[in-house]
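Let us work through a complete example step by step.
Step 1: write down the sequence.
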Amino acid sequence: MIPLLLLATMLTGFLYYLWTPKPIYQSASFLPYSKLLTPTSPLQTSTLANQEKKPAKLLPLEQRQNQFWPMVRKAARQHKLDPALVMAVIQVESCFRPNAISPKGAMGLMQITGPTAKHLGLSKPMDPKANIKAGVRYLAELKRRFKNNVVMTLAAYNAGPTKVRSQGKVPDHRETRQYITRVLGKMNEFRTRFQGLAKN
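Step 2: predict the structure and record it as tokens.
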């Protein structure tokens, strides 16, 4: 009887061991993938960064203006334009937001449309430097076409050169006239603000 009782007790204990729930993750080889990544793991850090990626915070307006001023000054010099004029165009067009896209599809700082970008060979309209270079080049092209008349140049930049040339004057559109007034006003502000810096 005693051996049978002992055997029964051992068997019961063995069965209890088999059926009792035990921790699954007992070594690194059995840990789930996420548990293997420590907080300092480059892979986990990269994954979390992608999941929590947010749009870059936009700098205050004056800081954005100062940031792009050197690019504007350089491009304006190359095309013999007043840098204050270019700054004013950017201010009115995009408020110095590099990723700005208008309802009509104009892109970047100088709000260059698809056809104009193609004409200028601009492949990266959202790149500030490329956008400024292309926009200044286009503005200079319009200024030559309209015999250095700044008002007509701005009208063409806003309404399109074909329309301005066909009418031989500033189109009688409220938007275009307001655009010209705003740009000229901002141009005077930038001339005062960057006076001296433009010569450096």
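Step 3: interpret the result. DSSP finds ten helices and no strands in the chain.
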